[in-house]
Design goal:
By secondary structure, the chain is an alpha+beta fold. Helix content is 17%, strand content 29%. The strands form three sheets. Strands 1, 2, 7, 8, 9, 10, 11, 14, 15, 16 and 17 form an eleven-stranded mixed β-sheet that branches. A four-stranded antiparallel β-sheet has the order 3-6-4-5, with no helix packed on it.
């Protein structure tokens, strides 16, 4: 049975057909267990290594003695001089402990340890049931905590939005959008659904389509399929590039690019992903001579009022892993994108 859900941004409503599932609106924020709270000053915790830990690496032993923290976090504390064993500073995670050893660990808060905490923020949820929800992510919102963005991410918002998210890896996030890309994302609410969605994505059974505004008038066929392996740009490790797999490590990538409308200034295209590589559409569009508007990383520049890369994930569809229905979601273009189209004399109606 086909189910279609259309998010109408102009009216802020969701329309479903008669056979669709019901939608429950979530407006409140539930109290969450924020996990270990060591405070801003830190905590000194004694360590006693018994016979079960004899001969183990220090970081592995600590992971058993302080199980509420990740091994990666504990390795950082070791490297920062926060662990002593038998009165001596221990700086090597690989050092071995012996039965009868005693020590102290100072549990200092790090940006990473504080990253996975709930933060109240406005999230545009266009669909949800007991298994999953679909979110229309605005441009400017980072998906996961990372260096430079340890807070204020979608993950932080999900942790405050839904108590179930606190029980899932990455708060149920199964795929991502770049910070300045807007549009649809599906988020799991149970571990079983999360695992199922990951498998669907890996099997290319989640259909993701994007609208992109690109520089330069379109020439040639209205459909171009771009086959271009993607890896780190050997000349600039901070960006990706279409590379030669014989010379550089990378992964195969395929994008279908459909022309929607063209103008003397540029073109509006619909991109369909067959793979999900980092910056795939941005890299592939630049490789065929049409960098995205305002995507300065890949050769674009600000135009038509756009201040961020002109890329919007407007279509998302998949078979619901628990119910078996086809779920189809579409999100209208955000305001900045619509204004840019108008300035370039282009138009697009969601169909």
């Amino acid at each position: 049975m086909r189910q279609q859900i259309i998010w109408n941004e102009a009216f802020g409503t969701t329309f479903l057909n008669k056979n669709s599932l019901s939608i429950s609106t979530v407006s409140g924020v539930e109290n969450l267990d924020e996990g270990p709270d060591i405070g801003l000053e830190g905590e000194l915790r004694p360590l006693v290594f018994d016979e079960t830990l004899h001969g183990k690496r220090l970081d592995l032993a600590l992971a058993e003695l302080v199980p509420e923290f990740s091994r990666n976090y504990l390795q950082q504390l070791i490297g920062r001089g926060s662990v002593t064993v038998n009165g001596a500073l221990s700086l090597k995670p690989s050092s071995r402990v012996k039965v009868g050893d005693c020590g102290v660990i100072e549990l200092r808060p790090t940006p990473q340890s504080q990253a996975f905490k709930p933060e109240i923020m406005e999230l545009q949820v266009i669909y949800e049931d007991e298994y999953l929800r679909v979110i229309n992510k605005p441009a400017g919102l980072v998906v996961h905590p990372a260096p430079g963005n340890w807070s204020g991410t979608l993950l932080n918002g999900l942790l405050a939005f839904d108590a179930k998210a606190n029980l899932l890896p990455r708060a149920g996030i199964v795929h991502r959008l770049d910070k300045d890309t807007s549009g649809l994302m599906v988020v799991a609410r149970t571990r079983a659904v999360m695992d199922a969605l990951v498998k669907l994505i890996a099997a290319h059974e989640v259909n993701r389509q994007y609208l992109a505004l690109a520089h330069h008038p379109w020439v040639g066929a209205a459909l171009q399929t771009v086959h271009g392996p993607i890896g780190r740009d050997p000349r600039n490790r901070l960006r990706m590039a279409v590379i030669d797999l014989k010379q550089n490590p990378g992964k195969s990538a395929k994008t279908d690019v459909h022309l929607i409308e063209r103008s003397p200034a540029g073109c509006l295209v619909r991109c369909v992903l067959h793979t999900g590589r980092t910056h795939q559409i941005r890299v592939h569009m630049a490789s065929i001579g049409h960098p995205l508007v305002a995507d300065e990383v890949y050769g674009g520049s600000s135009a038509a009022g756009m201040k961020r890369q002109a890329l919007h994930a407007f279509h998302l569809s998949f078979i619901h892993p628990m119910i078996g229905q086809e779920m189809v979601f579409r999100a209208l273009l955000p305001l900045d994108f619509r204004i840019a189209l108008e300035k370039w004399g282009l138009s697009y109606n969601l169909r």
